[in-house]
Structure formats: structure tokens, C-alpha cells
Design a protein that fits this description.
This protein is α+β, with helices and mostly antiparallel strands and about 230 residues long. Helix content is about 45%, strand content about 20%. It contains six helices and eight strands. Strands 1-2-3-4-5 form a five-stranded mixed β-sheet. The protein has a three-stranded antiparallel β-sheet with strand order 6-7-8.
């Protein structure tokens, strides 16, 4: 009798152990299956909370060292504005580019604008060393410099309009000048202007007594009307 009870007790304990193992396996399996859904849910909730917020990054992190200060920019602006022939000068810093805008006399020539661009650039590098601020070293990104010189602000339609840019990027060895008010290919530029003029102001064409107006509309001339009668 005692043997039967012991055997039954052992079987009961063995069954309980199997049930516990099955429960543990089931719980672990549920957790493993739930992990991807929890991660996906977190991404969805995080993205929903960040909707409408700008993503701000700094592509110049650990670069632009030493930094150009506001005091240095103000010094450059004051010195350039005091140059002979300058009517107005401003200095700003869009996207790691030191930009100097120089407004000179309306009657200034291309040669005078080129000379002024060089003079203004020399002022810049007298305050900010060219090799330190406008040249790459050890793979570090540094500033670019642009000097814009023009005789008529927003005067591209003016006959004597002159616009010169002197540029020095951090990966250039020396600064270069370009007269942007003059097309590189004058013949091509004129052809493009003529094509645009024809497109904006189509000329009527006369054929067999009819005048084509606009796109496909035909207007009868007096001679055509009389013949029809």
C-alpha cells in the first residue's frame, strides 16, 4: 500500500514539473514573439511624438576651429566700408561661408569692380589669416570666403551693370575672380534670351489671307471676308 502511494506521489510531482517547464517555455516564447512588436510600437510612438519637429544636426561638428567671431565680422565690415569708392558694405555668415557684400559707385567699371574685390579680400585676410580660417588642414573643414562687388544692386537689366565675385573655398589654394554679370558664352546667352522672347511674345503669321492668332485660332482678314461673300 505504501509503495502505491509513493509511486502515485512521484508521478504527480513529475507531471507538475512537466507542466511548469511547459509554462516557462510558453512564457519565454511569448516574450520573444512580443519583442519585435514592442520595438515597432516604440518607433511608431516616438515618430508620432516627433512629428512636426525639425531634425537638427551639425555637419560642421568638430570642424571650423578656430571659429570666426561676431567681433571679427564687424571689424571686417567697418574696414571694407571705409575703403575709397565703397558706398555700402555688409558682412554675414550663411552656412560656414563668410560673405562680404560691397556696393560701389553706379558708374564703376568692370576693372574697378575687380580691383575692389581684391582690395576687400585683402582686408578679410588681414583680420582672418587665410591659412588658418580659409584652408583645410588635417582633414578639418574650414570656412569659405566670398566677396561680392556690384555697382547697381538688383540692376541686372541696367546696361552698365557689373557684378564680380572673388571666391576662396577651404579646398582651394588661391582665391579666384569671376565677372558674373558677363556670360561665359555670350552667343549662347543671347540665343536663350531670343528664344525666351519669342516664347513670351509670339508673332502672328499670315498664310493664304488668314492670320494665325495664339495657338490654333484663325482670324479672317478683310480680303478673306470679301471673297467669302
Amino acid at each position: 500500500m505504501a509503495t502505491k502511494k509513493t509511486s502515485k506521489h512521484v508521478k504527480t510531482k513529475s507531471a507538475k514539473k512537466k507542466m511548469r517547464k511547459a509554462d516557462i517555455i510558453l512564457i519565454v516564447g511569448c516574450i520573444i514573439l512580443a519583442i519585435p512588436f514592442l520595438i515597432l510600437g516604440w518607433f511608431l510612438v516616438s515618430a508620432s511624438l516627433d512629428t512636426g519637429k525639425p531634425i537638427i544636426g551639425d555637419r560642421y561638428e568638430n570642424n571650423l576651429d578656430p571659429a570666426i567671431t561676431k567681433a571679427q565680422m564687424e571689424e571686417i565690415e567697418t574696414k571694407v566700408a571705409s575703403l575709397s569708392g565703397v558706398e555700402k558694405a555688409t558682412v554675414d555668415m550663411p552656412t560656414a561661408t563668410l560673405r562680404v557684400n560691397v556696393d560701389i559707385s553706379d558708374t564703376a567699371t568692370k576693372e574697378e569692380a575687380l580691383a575692389m574685390a581684391s582690395e576687400a579680400y585683402n582686408v578679410v585676410i588681414s583680420v582672418l589669416d587665410e591659412n588658418t580660417y580659409f584652408s583645410q588642414s588635417n582633414g578639418m573643414k574650414m570656412y569659405d570666403c566670398e566677396v561680392h562687388v556690384y555697382n547697381v544692386p538688383d540692376g541686372s537689366e541696367t546696361e552698365n551693370f557689373v557684378y564680380v565675385i572673388q571666391l576662396k573655398t577651404s579646398n582651394m589654394e588661391t582665391a579666384t575672380q569671376q565677372v558674373v554679370s558677363e556670360p561665359v558664352d555670350a552667343e549662347l546667352a543671347q540665343q536663350l534670351r531670343d528664344d525666351l522672347e519669342k516664347k513670351n511674345n509670339p508673332q502672328p503669321t499670315e498664310e493664304s489671307g488668314d492670320i494665325t492668332v495664339g495657338s490654333g485660332e484663325v482670324e479672317e482678314t478683310p480680303a478673306t471676308s470679301e471673297a467669302a461673300e
